[in-house]
Amino acid sequence: MNGRVAVVLSVLILTSAFGQNWPDYKIELNQVSAWEFSGCGNFVMTDFSGPLSCWIVLSQPVGNFVASVSPAVIGAGETFTACVRLQDFSCPEYIPPGTQAVHVANLRISVQVSGEPQLAGQIPVFMDIPYFAPTSVGTDISVSPPESSTGAMPVNLMFEEVTAAGMTSLIMSGAGPETPEGFSLGEPPMYFDISSTATYEGSIHIQISYSDMSFSVPPEQLRLFHWETGQWVDRTESVDTVGEIIHGRVDSLSPFAVFEPAIIHVDIDIKPGSHPNSINLDGHGVIPVAILGSAEFLVERIDVDALRFAGLHIRVKGNGKPQCSIKDVNGDGHDDLVCQFVDIPEDWTGGETEATLTGNLQDGRAFAGTDSIRIVP
Description:
- There is one protein chain.
- The protein has strands at residues 27-28, 30-33, 36-44, 50-58, 64-70, 73-74, 79-87, 105-113, 116-123, 125-126, 133-135, 138-143, 155-164, 166-173, 183-185, 191-196, 199-209, 223-228, 231-234, 236-240, 245-250, 255-261, 264-265, 268-270, 278-280, 286-291, 302-309, 324-327, 336-342, 354-361, 366-372, 374-376.
- By secondary structure, the chain is mainly beta.
- The chain folds into three domains: 27-126, Immunoglobulin-like, CATH 2.60.40; 133-261, Chondroitinase Ac, Chain A, domain 3 (Sandwich); 264-376, Immunoglobulin-like.
- A hairpin with a 2-residue loop joins strand 8 and strand 9.
- The N and C termini lie far apart (65 Å).
- Mean pLDDT is 83; it is low at 1-21 and 94-101.
């Protein structure tokens, strides 16, 4: 079954010989990790005092329950805390599709009076089963685990071979391991923590949709990283820029993230030698922009075809080559790249005070630079 099933660990509240029950109290179990849930509740023992104890009666095998109460001894009218933890959670495979709730356990609280345990009452404990995707035995098993809070399915996994069935889950979060040097996350930042109780062999082909994230670089520059043994490893195979899906291949599951190369900030000079940098709304022709080189930034490594200035393209000469030249425009001893961008007056609103040039190096790393402008009517 692929979807979300609300499993209620609730019980019928029984009135004991002491008359104690908690019909308005409950314990909610929250997800701690993929297969662990925990929760606590505060309760008042209105009639009795003495040592407290608790136990759980399971109606279905869904994992390992642990219950505790504190303090161990209370007085009449005092508050105690009951906690429940569920580890190694697994959804019973026999839950039929469409089932909304399944009764799996009773949490009973008792108080000892004169050394004899007596039933004091029962507390409802409930949880929502996370979204999951059953993963069956076989070869080339395709699984799309729904995200744990929304049910979205931005990830697809193709297991080369599954030898024991289980469940595969996905938790998406904006928090995760520190980004690798030279890379940054998109907006919003997103990590994809994938786990499975299935036993598998061979490789896993993973596809992650990045359609709900925005990046500063062309999509073909995106990279899919996998967190392995305490470090990020680039596992990118390809990027489908039309379907907005990035592909990779791994042999284990843990957090994944889509990164873009961090943008290198460079200095530019619009209309070198002039100040202010005036752009005439009634003008036509080209706007010269110099990308200033340095010992760390060599303009010879720039991918000229990827350059854009405020969205404008480089003028192409009659021989089909971009109108760019290398010269030292600021006299610092380093080569600079000067390109002529075709001006389109309609692209300016009239309120701009600065303009940005963007581009890539030949190795795919992105860079950008900004300079002031003055719009002249």
